[in-house]
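Quick one, tokens below:
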């Protein structure tokens, strides 16, 4: 048992945008707390993203409780250094009680309280808010273990820039926002790219003269609550939309990639004896994404008519995704055409330090909108669709943090 024990009402784990939003609102409620951060403020944004990445949300939407974007490019998209600067400024603005370089090694129960251990110290807290992010480790399919020895395997978590990859063709697995951005960047570096496409969400960057995020906000899509959807599990695991935040606000979709020379194949289903096999459902998967896009645009059009929105551009529709009549169903990974497989297949949180039985069989925390009901006083924030569809965006942290800090303050008041 560590010799130094600090008794405190609340510990917040993680000094990213969500943890800092919680910290600010706890301060407003006069709840004494500490924020523990394994690296620096905004550590994930600072160290665990590729070089060219920009936010998918426009600058005007980048805000946190009591703090918002104040630059001269509201329709632009922040680079990663700009995101780090924004969150750094926020931490200073709210004077957050952050202890950096403090890796949490264990969180365990102690009666109706929690013991949080790190760096030889222990905090004895009545409540703990886990704000450590949902993207701590890459989620690589089991077929990744079957790649031939000569193939370089890289996750999007570790990828930084094309020049780090070996020469030769690249198979990018996954066609959500991450996959399509990396596929384009790697292809533009001169490496032939094959993109393995599974379920995806097609979305234009702009529609009828406005950013798509404007419309999603206007029609109430982003504010849809977790207790208002029919299939919450599915809603929380839908891939991120195919969006890219570039200065020219362009749309990047599968048609854009194929026009550049990227080859599309179906979902990677197996690797056997040096051969990669792909699902034959590519056409159906793309057709479904096209249909859902049409439904979304119809919903926006209906809202515009019903709200008598001012001058906007005329409705538009986009060409169906172009799929080869006979898409490739297998690739020989031993013939030298592919040198790298890059996994853009998502991420999972890391709870290896959480010594409390609140994880389900998939290793995810069981919670009700961020309230861990199996362990009173324990909270989670910063996950996809935690309480609203916008939960995973920077601006989505505020409403979630308001709800959870309100619940937390009530819990502490009952102690």
């Amino acid at each position: 048992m560590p010799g130094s024990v600090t008794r405190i009402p609340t510990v917040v784990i993680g000094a990213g945008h969500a943890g800092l939003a919680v910290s600010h609102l706890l301060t407003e409620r006069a709840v004494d707390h500490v924020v523990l951060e394994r690296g620096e403020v905004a550590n994930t944004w600072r160290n665990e993203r590729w070089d060219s990445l920009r936010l998918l949300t426009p600058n005007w939407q980048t805000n946190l409780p009591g703090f918002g974007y104040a630059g001269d490019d509201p329709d632009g998209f922040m680079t990663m250094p700009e995101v780090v600067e924004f969150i750094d400024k926020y931490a200073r603005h709210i004077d957050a009680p952050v202890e950096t370089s403090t890796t949490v090694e264990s969180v365990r129960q102690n009666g109706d309280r929690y013991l949080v251990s790190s760096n030889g110290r222990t905090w004895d807290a009545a409540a703990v808010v886990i704000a450590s992010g949902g993207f701590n480790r890459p989620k690589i399919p089991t077929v990744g273990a079957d790649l031939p020895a000569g193939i370089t395997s890289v996750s999007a978590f570790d990828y930084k820039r094309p020049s780090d990859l070996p020469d030769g063709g690249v198979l990018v697995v996954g066609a959500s926002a991450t996959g399509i951005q990396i596929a384009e960047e790697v292809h533009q570096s001169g490496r032939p790219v094959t993109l393995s496409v599974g379920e995806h969400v097609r979305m234009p960057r702009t529609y009828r003269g406005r950013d798509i995020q404007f419309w999603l906000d206007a029609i109430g899509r982003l504010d849809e609550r977790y207790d208002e959807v029919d299939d919450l599990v599915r809603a929380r695991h839908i891939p991120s939309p195919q969006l890219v935040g570039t200065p020219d606000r362009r749309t990047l979709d599968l048609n854009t990639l194929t026009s550049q020379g990227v080859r599309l194949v179906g979902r990677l289903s197996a690797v056997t004896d040096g051969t990669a096999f792909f699902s034959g459902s590519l056409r159906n998967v793309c057709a479904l994404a096209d249909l859902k896009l049409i439904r979304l645009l119809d919903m926006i059009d209906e809202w515009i008519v019903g709200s008598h929105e001012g001058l906007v551009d005329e409705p538009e529709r986009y060409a169906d995704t172009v799929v080869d009549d006979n898409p490739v169903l297998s690739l020989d990974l031993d013939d030298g055409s592919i040198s790298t497989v890059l996994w853009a297949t998502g991420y999972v949180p890391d709870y290896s330090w959480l010594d409390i039985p609140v994880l389900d069989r998939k290793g995810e925390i069981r919670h009700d909108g961020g309230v861990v009901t199996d362990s009173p006083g324990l909270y989670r924030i910063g996950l996809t669709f935690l309480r609203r569809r916008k939960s995973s965006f920077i601006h989505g942290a505020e409403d979630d943090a308001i709800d959870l800090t309100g619940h937390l303050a009530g819990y502490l008041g009952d102690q």
